[in-house]
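Data card: per-record layout.
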Amino acid sequence: MTEFDPHPDVSRLLDELGPADPPPGFARNVMARILDEHHAASKKTVRFNREERAMTRKVMWGLATAAAITLAVFAIKGFPPVGRGTEGTVGAAQKYQAPQIADKDVVLGDSAVQEFLQSDTFERVMKDVDARALLADASVRSALEDAELRKAIEDPDIRASLTSAELRSAFANADLRRALDSAELRRAYDAEFRKAYDVEMRKSGGDPSLRQAVDDAALRRAAADAALRRAVSDSAVRQAVGEAALRRAVEDPAARASLADANFRKAIENAAVRKALSNDEFRAAMAQSRADAAMRSAALARAIGNPAFGAAIRSAQMRNMLAK
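The structure for this 324-residue chain is written out next.
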């Protein structure tokens, strides 16, 4: 005959427990708690009928019996260790713990970002089909996360230079990128240009009204050619730039144009701009038919200059708005 177990759940739990030592004073605290509950119940003034009192006594003694059995098992088998039979509870508790939030994740909660996304400035960008199409490109958004690049392209000349076919062509080749990245080559150009400037000023008798001749594109190209020839013969420049890079720069009209054009020079002297132009995807985005109009957009320029633009460009909310 199977023995009736009045507390099957307690028995099952006890069977699953493994050995461990009980904490100090565990048995004393449990029995003290049972006695306190019993004394508290006996002092209540609420009247119970005989059946209710009998039921209460049964429940109290049942709990006391279960506690006593538990203590006895603990004394024999040891106190249950954490992890046996409690994995689900601990796992659930861990599952609902809020993860630590990194700075980059605090984007949509930033009031400045929300204010920017709801501003007239951003609304104008959203209505400008060219600017919106450009910002929808992932490579452009990634590049614009760089604060130094955003600061650089607040200059309208640099924005226009980014869409120049000559500059993109020069940066499409690793050797030419290395040459244009060289401070030594740019210094050589500056020296040749100052020399040409002085010659023209002497020809003009020092008349300021004739200085416009010095800014002629042909004069700048001549200075670029002279700088490249000087660089080839200068061992320090050859070592810094590299023989192959210098040969490509001398032979490539795009490199000479980049050195000679004042706006291009302004762009390539900025490290963030050079880094962006070294990226194939970014250059491809700048070659899009709408890129030139977008980079000349007053709405886009105003948006990029907003202090909250950097955080907004990283937000999923802005990406979703641009994708609609």
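Known properties of this structure: Confidence is low (pLDDT under 50) at residues 82-109. The chain has three domains: 8-85, 108-164+267-324, 170-260.

See the next section for split statistics.
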